[in-house]
Each structure stands twice: as structure tokens, then as C-alpha cells.
Amino acid sequence: MQAKEVEKIYSLSNLNLEGKDVEDLSNKFNIVIDFIEDIFDVDTENIKMTESIDAHKAVFRKDEAKESSSRDDALKNAPDREFGYFRLDWNL
């Protein structure tokens, strides 16, 4: 991951990079990405599954129809909006 990608991730996450070493963050991201790639290479062919989502019994609440938030309430904390919608800058 390059420094420019780290800057984009921080910007999209509304995080401040001020005072942070972007190259160091880039290196740390690369360590994590390399580790994840190593996990995909592990042979699990003969490993017995110890947990299964199928066995999990989740209790869900009943859906209840409620009045939606007003557009103004939904957008009141938006850092940027346009034409009554959240505005996202995809060109960061």
C-alpha cells in the first residue's frame, strides 16, 4: 500500500493524518495485508471445523415499522451535502 492510498483511506474515514507518519502507517498496512495473504495459503483440507454458523441460534427482534427520520435530521451532521443528499467525493 502506498502513502497516497493511506491518505485516501484516512480521508474517507474522516480521520486526521496530522502528526502521523504516513510512510510508517503504509508499512503497517502492508504487514497486515501480507499476513492476510499468508492466511489464504494455509492448508485446512484435513482440519475439523470447530464452529459453524448453522449451529448458532440467534434471537431476532420482530421488525416494527416506524416513521423515518426527516431529511434535515439525517443530514444535520453530514460534512458535505448536495441536492438534499450526502455528498461523497470519489476522486480523493
UniProtKB/TrEMBL annotation:
UniProt GO BP: glutaminyl-tRNAGln biosynthesis via transamidation; regulation of translational fidelity
Any GO MF annotation of the entry: transferase activity
Keyword Transferase: yes
Catalytic reaction(s) noted: L-glutamyl-tRNA(Gln) + L-glutamine + ATP + H2O = L-glutaminyl-tRNA(Gln) + L-glutamate + ADP + phosphate + H(+); L-aspartyl-tRNA(Asn) + L-glutamine + ATP + H2O = L-asparaginyl-tRNA(Asn) + L-glutamate + ADP + phosphate + 2 H(+)
Pfam families to which the protein is assigned, alphabetical: GatC
Keyword list, A-Z: Transferase
Keyword Transport: no
Domain of life (superkingdom): Bacteria
Family listed: Belongs to the GatC family.
Quaternary structure note: Heterotrimer of A, B and C subunits.
Function: Allows the formation of correctly charged Asn-tRNA(Asn) or Gln-tRNA(Gln) through the transamidation of misacylated Asp-tRNA(Asn) or Glu-tRNA(Gln) in organisms which lack either or both of asparaginyl-tRNA or glutaminyl-tRNA synthetases. The reaction takes place in the presence of glutamine and ATP through an activated phospho-Asp-tRNA(Asn) or phospho-Glu-tRNA(Gln).
Name this polypeptide is given: Asp-tRNA(Asn)/Glu-tRNA(Gln) amidotransferase GatCAB subunit C
